[in-house]
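Reviewers asked in the last cycle whether our approach scales beyond single polypeptides. To address this, we selected a multi-component target totalling 1286 residues and predicted its structure end to end. The input consisted of the following lines:
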Amino acid sequence: MIKFFLMVNKQGQTRLSKYYEHVDINKRTLLETEVIKSCLSRSNEQCSFIEYKDFKLIYRQYAALFIVVGVNDTENEMAIYEFIHNFVEVLDEYFSRVSELDVSFFNTVFHGTWQMHSGPYQTRSCSVTQAGVQRCDHGSLHPGSPGLK
Amino acid sequence: MSDIVEKTLTALPGLFLQNQPGGGPAAAKASFSSRLGSLVRGITALTSKHEEEKLIQQELSSLKATVSAPTTTLKMMKECMVRLIYCEMLGYDASFGYIHAIKLAQQGNLLEKRVGYLAVSLFLHESHELLLLLVNTVVKDLQSTNLVEVCMALTVVSQIFPREMIPAVLPLIEDKLQHSKEIVRRKAVLALYKFHLIAPNQVQHIHIKFRKALCDRDVGVMAASLHIYLRMIKENSSGYKDLTGSFVTILKQVVGGKLPVEFNYHSVPAPWLQIQLLRILGLLGKDDQRTSELMYDVLDESLRRAELNHNVTYAILFECVHTVYSIYPKSELLEKAAKCIGKFVLSPKINLKYLGLKALTYVIQQDPTLALQHQMTIIECLDHLDPIIKRETLELLYRITNAQNITVIVQKMLEYLHQSKEEYVIVNLVGKIAELAEKYAPDNAWFIQTMNAVFSVGGDVMHPDIPNNFLRLLAEGFDDETEDQQLRLYAVQSYLTLLDMENVFYPQRFLQVMSWVLGEYSYLLDKEMPEEVIAKLYKLLMNDSVSSETKAWLIAAVTKLTSQAHSSNTVERLIHEFTISLDTCMRQHAFELKHLHENVELMKSLLPVDRSCEDLVVDASLSFLDGFVAEGLSQGAAPYKPHHQRQEEKLSQEKVLNFEPYGLSFSSSGFTGRQSPAGISLGSDVSGNSAETGLKETNSLKLEGIKKLWGKEGYLPKKESKTGDESGALPVPQESIMENVDQAITKKDQSQVLTQSKEEKEKQLLASSLFVGLGSESTINLLGKADTVSHKFRRKSKVKEAKSGETTSTHNMTCSSFSSLSNVAYEDDYYSNTLHDTGDKELKKFSLSSELLDSESLTELPLVEKFSYCSLSTPSLFANNNMEIFHPPQSTAASVAKESSLASSFLEETTEYMHSNAMEVCNNETISVSSYKIWKDDCLLMVWSVTNKSGLELKSADLEIFPAENFKVTEQPGCCLPVMEAESTKSFQYSVQIEKPFTEGNLTGFISYHMMDTHSAQLEFSVNLSLLDFIRPLKISSDDFGKLWLSFANDVKQNVKMSESQAALPSALKTLQQKLRLHIIEIIGNEGLLACQLLPSIPCLLHCRVHADILALWFRSSCSTLPDYLLYQCQKVMEGS
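The resulting structure, written as structure tokens, was:
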């Protein structure tokens, strides 16, 4: 089960957060800081899975942006790892400029994800209309995945 | 069709956005509402956290003003919501906007509604009170004719919905399962999945509809239903075995690329769907050969297909390997899976390596040789730069630890422990080390030192069980008394040296352990006098860094030692110091010590040496206070009423109008008895009893109910367990095998060494020490003796009994020294009972021997002789028990006679009790076994009838049932048949009793027989039992019903829709009576009372009332799980008929 989905940049600013289990708002900030700290401390030679407290973090870095997914112990790490990439591909497909790595990236991503956030249909339909992008029916996201249903 | 809908939906947001300049998704960025845009830009431009905070607070206060202003339009509100969401995401409280989000969802047009719903799902949580306000909106939208609105409502339901309001929307969502648009069906399934997660009971009756969803022609709907199935199968796999075929077919289609191409991800067909299916198959095939056989083909194909070099295929492979190893094994598949693991482990990619290690950890217990194959990689990973990899490796090593490699593995773990700082890691690892040390410690010194390391590193964060278990282990000791003493002595010595060191700080828990051990076992020291130990403890006591809890432990230790010391100035100084302490707890301890110190005799009897393990006998009825109570009562004091009674009385006085049925009428009748002046309250009743019996028996404590584990000579069951130990302690030949393997390994190593560098050599050495004993263990497994590894510190059965008891028992140990004066009296009683004790023990011995004889009772003559001998030798003690002892031989003698009448007696029984139809559970060419259940009044009688189909005679056919967790299975006489004639049928019967409530259970067993004289065969079978098998009617009167009703705390209410055929109450109740074996007590108008009991005697009451076609069910029981379960069954019955 996925516990949360985060997009945080290197400066520790949260770009997108979605919690599937209720976390108190004060604890969220703390959690996000710790999560980004542990992601930043890792090098390329180290694996993309971190054990953090009683759950696992799976992260992927796109330029200066980290996408981090917190899962419990039963999840298949590699599947989540690829799922993140799928998510980014969908973003890329929908907002044709999402892969640009300039400064406006963050704004774009935010807007983009915001759209995803607000529109449960777009992503899905985007995957339908545009062949090649997999339908994001990934299971673990289900209890209330925002954009991916 | 679906595509058209999807496209319309895609176009929708575009349409809305077209109002603004531009259009289409790409333009959305440009036209994005400027306010949010500028907020985001503003925040990004800021450099410090402080500035950000200021900006957001400013933003929030302006938002607050806007949302509460009456002039704000919905469109502006939508815009505000967006900004609120952003602020809250950054961690600033925006709770003032919650209510407006709900309003927006209620009132807005499509786009505004959507933003409203989104904001609600992000802001609120399941139990938030505002969520209730959303229910109406959701209901309205679900009934809307606009597809988009329906979808939005379904989406929000699947994200967040109040549990208690599920019945309000459930029928609407159920209807949506038949909707013509697949997107609606899919969302409906997901909403039901959500319900299943938060309230499984409420959707149980629509399980059949999930099956329809599984067969849906749309892949999305099918995929959604898999989530529900995965969850349900995880809870109870036996109920869904029939679906295995469907899952296999689905997976075959997915793997074969039969899905639309849009489901491909990097040209892999629906990878996440595959993973989901593989997980389901793994759960279904676990320990089930028949089901597993169905899936071998498709697993093989998945392994073969997933050879593409892409991350996502590795994810599938990993899941495949996991499934292959969790189902009933097939050697070919295992081989392939092992190869896959090898590929992972050897991969240079770090993520794959991690997966490989994880997979190894899963399979290592089944196939230790795999670890041998990859030992060098594992060694490399152990020194990997990445701590995560290291930790995964340690986890792997933890699984392969045995008596030979324990020291190396624990050393590695300790090394890691010293480096890590994260609390969770420490707690986890410390627990593992302690567990391993207890299991496999090679010698005393190592054990104590390892535990010292555990305590000093784990300190105050570790699980409290660890020090408790350790102390218990020391106190209870092992089988060898001198060994125990040495261990204790070593512990004492090592603690004394640790305490000698200056300027070292130990965690409080460690100090507590030390003080307990020193207090109990310092007497083992030869040289050092108790005075010196006391001096050390005193020094600690005066230390400011020691917490007051630890000080209590320390002073307890001092008290224990004082009784051994002759006279000590330190003690006097200590008493002097602490009797004026500000800490009241310490002051009390000091006073106790002072009084005990003045009366040395009392002290010695109160604090005996090395008696920490003996159970304190506590008189729970407090009978020694009876005199005091009687005096109080005679002086006019009110009798004691227990808490719940007082509350009930208070309630009944307060209640003016009672809307609950029976409450009033029964409470008055129920209470008059209790309130009558002469009546003794419930509480005093108990002590009254004990006063009567207590007078007679004060000198011989009541021993019923107190488990007698300890006799004068020590632990009683030891005698029995020893025989077990002896049979288990034959590791000598195995060890030689191990050595052989070790040699083989080292030889192999040596041959490789020639070309390798020195570093490599070291690694090899480490490897051979790590993986020692693994190979031999596999041979043991082959022989079928998995558990022959002899544990150094074999815990006694008592330790295993109850974990919850552990904390309290150690508490007892410390308390033993502080037992109040009254306890001294009990100590005396204890001795007076030892006579009784020894008798008891002897009795046990005899019953043991009788059992032994029974098992080999070939001739009856010597048996009788032996029994007459034992009755002669202890005539007085066995006076009452003679009957029992002679029982077994009688039954064996009679068994032959009984057998012949068995068949006829069955017929009688089956007519007398309800029984199920016979069902075949297993068969082969020679025999077939079918079973049926007879629901007897006091138990469930399982009958297995075995038919010999062959024309040959079968010898010594025997049926055995494996012990099950929740049941007690007793064999009825006549179960082993010496000879079974050709083409005959014989029956075995077992009575099954329930030990603790459960929902679904399995009874497995096997039948074994000999064909001709030569080969023997075995056939396994299993039978499902449900709780329903143990429900019996409870025949009570309406008055009793009322009384019972009030006394039960667990209640469950639910409305059930009745089908038309049973619209009238009597017919509905009749159904319940027939199907669920409930007893109808009374039917009054539109209400009915029913009662049943769960064997042996847990009652459950049911009150039903009919309104139109709704049947309101109200259950109450003393057991918490029973009402839920019965409710589910009732629902099933009512819906099903």
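Chain A touches chain B through 67 residues (CB under 8 Å). We regard this as preliminary and will revisit it once experimental data from Aim 1 are available.
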